[in-house]
Amino acid sequence: MTEIIAYITLGLTTGIISGIVGIGGGIIIIPALVFLFGFTQHQAQGTTLAILVPPIGLMAAYTYYQSGYVNLNVALFICIGFFIGGFAGSKIAVSLSNQVLEKIFGSILVIVGLYMWIKK
Question: What torsion, rounded to 10 degrees, do the Cα atoms 93, 78, 12, 18 define?
Fold first, then answer.
């Protein structure tokens, strides 16, 4: 149950950040699944694509699914949090200035990039 809560929290956090600055799967969910949940890069990418299936990643997610790299249960729980978080984040974003949004976006990219650079 705690793992389900963690996945929903990941989706919620990603949804909020995505609602604020328009980023999500590749920048937040994939590194989180790899570094926090122990997924392989293939599993993280396949599971993230499953979250984006309608309609963006259908064929890509299906290819990963056929190769055994999609965890549908995890994708569902993250999707629940992402759905709610995206709404909450968009509410926050519309109240922020363009300059603040640019700084938030840039900061997230730098932090994730540095973390991945150092950890690898």
Answer: -20
Q: Which residue has the tokens 């990643």?
A: 57
Nearest to 50 by CA among 35, 69, 33: 69
The domain tally of the chain equals 1
37, 22 in Cβ contact below 8 A? no
Tokens of 60: 């890509």
**Domain of residue 23, residue span:** 2-119
> Rounded to an integer, what distance in angstroms lies between the CA atom of residue 11 and that of residue 99?
26
| pTM, rounded to two decimals | 0.67
Q: Would you say residue 3 has pLDDT above 90?
A: yes
pLDDT at 4 (0 to 100): 95
Count of positions (residues) in the chain: 120
What SS3 state is found at 85? Answer: helix
